[in-house]
Amino acid sequence: xxxxxxxxxxxxxxxxxxxxxxxxxxxxxxxxxxxxxxxxxxxxxxxxxxxxxxxxxxxxxxxxxxxxxxxxxxxxxxxxxxxxxxxxxxxxxxxxxxxxxxxxxxxxxxxxxxxxxxxxxxxxxxxxxxxxxxxxxxxxxxxxxxxxxxxxxxxxxxxxxxxxxxxxxxxxxxxxxxxxxxxxxxxxxxxxxxxxxxxxxxxxxxxxxxxxxxxxxxxxxxxxxxxxxxxxxxxxxxxxxxxxxxxxxxxxxxxxxxxxxxxxxxxxxxxxxxxxxxxxxxxxxxxxxxxxxxxxxxxxxxxxxxxxxxxxxxxxxxxxxxxxxxxxxxxxxxxxxxxxxxxxxxxxxxxxxxxxxxxxxxxxxxxxxxxxxxxxxxxxxxxxxxxxxxxxxxxxxxxxxxxxxxxxxxxxxxxxxxxxxxxxxxxxxxxxxxxxxxxxxxxxxxxxxxxxxxxxxxxxxxxxxxxxxxxxxxxxxxxxxxxxxxxxxxxxxxxxxxxxxxxxxxxxxxxxxxxxxxxxxxxxxxxxxxxxxxxxxxxxxxxxxx
Length: 546
Hints:
By secondary structure, the chain is α+β, with helices and mostly antiparallel strands.
């Protein structure tokens, strides 16, 4: 097996990867089973209704909530501006919604470090907000008007938490304080509803919390590479279930479980609803006005007798897909860093990459050292492959003579070739199998480099200021093309002229494709090719020829 076929195998792995992504996007949605089929049942009463023209879930118990009409434009009143070391947040007094959330540590572009990335937004063209309330009589939903104490809050340098209260009062005597708690060095926002029943009657209510957003434009690279954008539900029965926008269009999700979370994710960022792990929740999805997608949950019924008080809680995670922050926020939330079917391989690769980064403090050099370690791990497999290539190269003149002798009689030519292999004790598949073993590792590393938010806007050196973006001057892709060309020259030309022409075109094809790939991935490929050339040259000229 010559080195050209190595390139073919890698090309095949890329093609299969692209086809799999396209299939997953277009046809990968699963039908949503009913709660009974999932082995779960509605919460102590009728199932929460999620259809119709309202963005408020109907209660699942005996309380009654008039259906509110959906709003094509978000209502807005007084604003609260909250600043922490990680977040810039705007809360509206209408519903106490999280209307805008900026991630202070993540600029939109490298050139403007003071312009923070806005993850949640109320802008009509990219609406994505977090909202919620209480379901029941004398309870505020996300259309209710809250009173605010002040309009600006800032986490002080010596404080670890910051609380932002909003109050709601009903003429019956019900008082509810909605309190957001922000934490230092955290993207988790805790939300408490402090319920005070000062009436003469029993009160029942249920918490609900939801994301509402429009479907963002489908962003793909020139070669169809994309990362998942949409909903995810994690439950004990299915710890990572994608609920994409096409799936939401087909059927509303209706699922009960205890211990899990719901999220809306995109390439580098995730927003998750994290209910307490000890309560049974009802998860739902629906579409409002044909374009706004709702993903949320309703909690169990809480009953308060006259004079009783209670606190009903939930939490949000709104931030980057940083695995340490995700792990600290909720169990299995780190799975939103989606490595696909190769997670079992990708996770150790990421762990090793992060370990190296902790020493060298430069993600570009971390990729280089990681590549060296992976190459070292596969040294003996690669050596077997290159030895086989070198042995096959020695036979090139004899194979060419057979071709001239037998002409178009391919059967006799193949029989003669196999006889030569038998006499020379050469396994024609000897260079193939070691490469096949390495392909899953390469694809897993690809997903690690694509999915890692740590590489977003991470500089290497010289002109590479963002390892997650393409090389602005295309230097690395051109170097990669040269290394592929050199690898071809170290290997014998295929006897088939058509195959030889295809192989000559491969460096050009791959160079064109890698022009648009993240520079971090191209850097890995350049280093890997350079190490392969060195190893192949050494084996061919030192071990075999000697």
